[in-house]
Amino acid sequence: MAAKSVISGEYIIQQEEGGNIVVYRIFDNVKASLREVAELKGFQYDPEWNVRQFGRKLCKEYGDGKLAFVGSYVIRVLESGSIETYRTYDVQKEALREIAGKVGFEYDPEWTTRQLGSKLIDFIDGK
Q: How large is the angle between the packed helices 92-103 and 113-124, nearest 10 degrees?
């Protein structure tokens, strides 16, 4: 459960109840993210597939048909049939620094991931 969270562009930053920071990137260009996953796994795909076809095939190959975890990527088939992809980060601090640069947030390089994440959430949220 998230204690606080914020969305900034394609990114979601969450601070969990215990203080841990998690960063997700929700892709605006879903087809491009599906290509990244396919290339990561060496999965052969037809460039003519639409997003729904492509996403369903990847979910079937690497998941349960509705949800697949491939490396740091998550692919999900929604009830509507639409495809959603997002990525988690192994090194949260790098993702936070990237987001901070995009939103113009100045931070102390000595801050911990928890400090940077919490302060960045507040900055983006206008607090």
A: 30
Orientation of helix 51-62 relative to helix 30-41, angle to 10°:
40
Segments making up each domain of the chain, as ranges:
2-26+89-124, 30-87
- The pLDDT of 69-91, averaged and rounded, is 92
Alpha-carbon dihedral angle through residues 105, 102, 113, 29, given to the nearest 10 degrees: 150
At 50-60, the pLDDT tens digits run 999 999 999 99
pLDDT at 1: 59
- Its pTM surpasses 0.85: no
Phi–psi pair at 11, nearest 5 degrees: -110, 145
How far is 107 from 87, CA to CA, in rounded Å? 24
For tokens 């911990």, the residue is 112
Assigned token pair, 52: 């729904």
- For residue 2, the model assigns a pLDDT of 65
Nearest-5° Cα angle at 9, 20 to 91: 35
